Amino acid sequence: MIGFLIFFLTDIFISVVFMAVYGGRRGYKNGMLLGVHVPETAVRDLEVEAFMADYRKRNKWFYYLNIVASGAVCFLLFWHLSIFMIVWSLWLIQLIAGAFWMLYGANRKLYEMKVRRGWGTGDYDGDCYWKNGWYDNPEDNRLLVPDRFCAANYTMNMGKKAGKIVVLSGIGLTLALLVWLNVMFLRVDFIPWELAISNGKVSISSTMYAISFSKDDVKRAELLDAMPDESLRKTNGLSDNQQLVGEFRGSESGDSRIYVYRDHSPVLKIELPDYTVYINSQKAEQTEEWYHMLEAK
Q: Which helix (H) or strand (E) holds 6?
């Protein structure tokens, strides 16, 4: 529930910030409309008015739908964390891409309208360097320039090779990180952990937090109908509606290593000198087989 609230509030906050920063650039300010220099009289031009009315309508629906979607996607946390992460990543990518596409696309169309209507050549005011929405001026030695669309920000000069490298590398690294996280959570959700014994060594393989210990160190092994009814504090692991996996500290059992699917029984409890292991399988007979393996001399 805590994770749900954190993501729910954070996602809505992100959507509102994007709406305020990139969806609110609709007024005539500093001689510009949507980052394009036009005379003040052009704002009352019928073509411009119709264009801006359509832009406002599309913006309103885009951001309102994203605010709703940002909260709705969080309900997937009550199912599989990996599915939530995939859908959340796709939502975030489309929010960022959509916000820039709508603003930059409108900027380019207004710039083309300006040139067509003869409201200046676009050279003296630098509009030609912003006609794609981003700054592109190979003759400018600056790598960072003030952003026309957000006065508090700076943007890269895409006319410079270094600017392209920095921006594309940042996008590539971000996408790579999202893919890596999604693959990792998919493995956690859908690749089951296993217990094996070989040469007196007990190994628990898991996508996260694999452990091993000597069979001789097992003080006691028993099958429980369910996890003990105690308070568990996660120190390094994962806890969602489907599973508990990683390092925990129980109010009664103390340091624990847990590999348990919720709502599946029985649970194998393994007492060791330094910590207690709880593990089960989605198949009851598999958990029972692990118990007999530990009990065998």
A: helix 2-22
CB atoms within 10 A of CB 245: 23
What is the total residue count of the chain?
297
Domain positions in the chain: 2-188, 194-295
Q: Which of 263, 229, 267, 260 is nearest to 244 (CA)?
A: 260
Full pLDDT tens readout for the chain, 297 residues? 677 889 999 999 999 999 988 887 678 888 889 889 999 899 999 999 999 999 999 999 999 999 999 999 999 988 888 999 999 999 999 999 999 999 999 999 999 999 899 887 555 688 989 988 899 999 999 999 998 887 778 999 999 999 999 999 999 999 999 999 999 889 988 999 999 999 999 999 998 899 999 999 999 999 999 999 999 999 998 888 899 999 999 999 999 999 999 999 999 999 999 999 999 999 999 999 999 999 886
